From TrEMBL:
Pfam families: B56 (PF01603). Residues 28-43 have a biased composition (Polar residues). It is found in: Cytoplasm. Belongs to the phosphatase 2A regulatory subunit B56 family. Residues 1-60 are annotated as: Disordered. The keyword Cytoplasm applies. This is Serine/threonine protein phosphatase 2A regulatory subunit. InterPro entries: ARM-like, ARM-type_fold, PP2A_B56.
């Protein structure tokens, strides 16, 4: 059974504001039925009108025995290769039902072999393809990759979604063909023979938007190809850069404030890590707003553990680029600090250490009071991993240096937490680390340490006096109640 290809959507592209941003190195580094299909996930809005150049025809099932093998490129004269290229694209536009492995086996293999030949032809650079061939090739690519993504498991049942880390990813059954289509697109984008002035007519805003929609695919193999392709498009098509950044922003906004479900946040953040790495200095206000409005709020969703490593890299890149942003980042982390999720808290403490490592003294002083109030709460956490991770901050020489310079503010804030751990924490490792930190402060400034110790003792003494006064007041009330005959109905504790 052939898959029906639906009409796709197109959002009117905004005018590009030109390219004035650097671009960093990556961290990871046809004729025939055409279509213009937008990924129509069940959680997305309805598609809009079709793009004028990608067509809107619906692929019809091929008649019996119409998918036949075509001659190899090397077997035809050079003058005939462009026509053969178009004919091969037409064969690759046909869609097959991969849910039935025994159906159309011969036709599927013919298409797979044809796709392999197309990839080799583009990669070899044996012939520069014409503009018409480029247009038809993008139509063929669109016909294959732009499709309705299957609904996620929680959307099928209507039940509360499970932890994304525990869910089995959905693997696309048509991947043997899809992989080759993606490879063809990638080779076309990176080819030195590809003229961006021509290619941008077909790889336009509509095409890029549909690629971004596909990042919600549950198949990690597909998301990896999409990440590489979009990264290369961003690098080669400078006119698309502002649009790509804005479109990624919109995906983040929807994820944070509406759905909290998206499979490709980590891959999108990897792309952004390279983009941020290439930002020119001084940093533009647009990029600082992106940090505040999109990146920092990504700490809010529950499934942050899935993409936290990539998010932390992007955040740290901002601070390393402009150290004055450290205060903004630290206060942003404190705003979204988890209250009941201990594993998430451990992630925050790890990210906090990376940010503090790139923080200068002036920015540290602006946020140190609220920061160490939160660290003090982490130090006394009953979850040993949280307390242990907070104490590990004192293993970082740069952070210790910042603390030492501001010890008169920091030590009074955390002294009570240190004493509480030494006298009452259940975990032996936490107890030992606390003793080491306490000793560090004592050697750092004996006079300050003794003053904090004296104030702590006075505070405990006052607290005991208040408790004794409270118990005395309750005893007097119980005595008065007993004298008035109500003693037998009164319970004292």
């Amino acid at each position: 059974m052939l898959r029906k290809i639906m009409k796709g959507g197109h959002r009117k592209p905004s005018k590009s504001d030109g390219n004035d941003f650097g671009f960093g190195a990556p961290r990871n580094s046809g004729s025939g039925p055409a279509n213009n299909v937008v990924v129509n996930h069940s959680s997305r809005a309805a598609p809009g009108p079709p793009s004028p150049h990608t067509g809107s025809a619906i692929a019809a099932p091929p008649p019996m025995n119409t998918v036949e093998p075509l001659p190899l490129f090397r077997d035809v004269p050079v003058s005939e290769r462009q026509n053969l290229f178009l004919r091969k694209l037409q064969v690759c536009c046909f869609q097959f039902d991969f849910t039935d492995t025994l159906k159309s086996v011969r036709e599927k293999e013919i298409k797979r072999q044809t796709l392999l030949e197309l990839v080799d032809f583009i990669q070899s650079g044996s012939g520069k393809i014409t503009e018409n061939c480029q247009e038809e090739m993008i139509k063929m690519v669109s016909a294959n990759i732009f499709r309705c993504l299957p609904p996620a498991s929680h959307e099928n049942t209507g039940q509360v979604s499970a932890d994304p880390e525990e869910e089995e990813p959905y693997l696309e059954p048509s991947w043997p063909h899809l992989q080759l289509v993606y490879e063809l697109l990638l080779r076309y984008v990176v080819s030195s023979d590809t003229d961006t002035k021509v290619a941008k007519r077909y790889i336009d805003h509509s095409f890029v938007l549909k690629l971004l929609d596909l990042f919600d695919s549950e198949d990690p193999r597909e998301r990896e190809y999409l990440k590489t392709i979009l990264h290369r498009i961003y690098g080669k098509f400078m006119v698309h850069r502002p649009f790509i950044r804005k479109a990624i922003n919109n995906i983040f906004y929807r994820f944070v404030y509406e759905t909290e479900r998206h499979s490709g946040i980590g891959e999108l953040l990897e792309i952004l890590g390279s983009i941020i790495n290439g930002f020119a200095l001084p940093m533009k206000e647009e990029h600082k707003l992106f940090l505040v409005r999109a990146l920092i709020p990504l700490h809010k969703p529950k499934p942050i553990s899935v993409y936290h490593q990539q998010l932390s890299y992007c955040i740290t890149q901002f601070v390393e680029k402009d150290y004055k942003l450290a205060d903004t980042v630290i206060r942003g982390l404190l705003k979204y600090w988890p209250v009941t999720n201990c594993q998430k808290e451990v992630l925050f403490l790890g990210e906090l250490e990376e940010v503090l490592e790139a923080t200068q003294s002036a920015e540290f002083q602006r946020s140190m009071v609220p920061l160490f109030r939160q660290i003090a709460r982490c130090l006394t956490s009953s979850h040993f991993q949280v307390a242990e991770r907070a104490l590990f901050l004192w293993n970082n020489e740069h952070i210790v240096s910042l603390i030492a310079q501001n010890r008169s503010v920091v030590l009074p804030i955390i002294f009570e937490a240190l004493e509480k751990n030494i006298h009452g924490h259940w975990n032996q490792a936490v107890h030992g680390l606390t003793v080491n930190v306490r000793k560090m402060f004592l050697e750092m400034d004996t006079e300050l340490f003794e003053e904090c110790q004296r104030q702590h003792a006075e505070k405990k003494s006052r607290a005991r006096d208040v408790e004794e006064q409270r118990e005395l007041t309750w005893k007097r009330l119980a005595d008065v109640a007993a004298q008035r005959g109500g003693g037998e109905d009164m319970i004292t504790v």
